[in-house]
Amino acid sequence: MTYAIAEAAHRSGLSIDTLRYYERIQLIDPPARDSGGRRAYTDEDLVWLVFLTKLRTTGMPIRMMREYARLRHQGVASAGRRKQILVQQRTEVLGRIAELNSCLDVLNYKIANYEQCERDLEEQAPGRLAEASA
Known about the structure:
Elements: E1 2-3, H1 5-12, H2 16-24, E2 32-33, E3 39-42, H3 43-57, H4 62-72, H5 79-124, H6 128-133
Antiparallel strand pairs: 1-3, 2-3
Helix pairs in contact: 4-5
């Protein structure tokens, strides 16, 4: 099945401009053209776009995405380097997750502290908190 650029953009969650940009910087191969000369994306193209979106979401720089895209055309011969790129990105993602978990711990601590403050206020003046919020 093939999709016009608007449908490919909708299905991939990317904008039409982003699809054209990805084509221009060679992240995606130029799609086939229909009889009217319009881009015709395949299901395989959409799978690749989803993967690129995942890489981008992990924070992978465009230059690394371009290297990965270039390497995939070499087939199995480039599997080692492609794996290395993904392992490196996974390490960076795990580091960011750890940092975010640390931030989450701080937020949870502060929220629990404020909840305790609210309980203490309620115990000191039962009903006053409810009246103030009414």
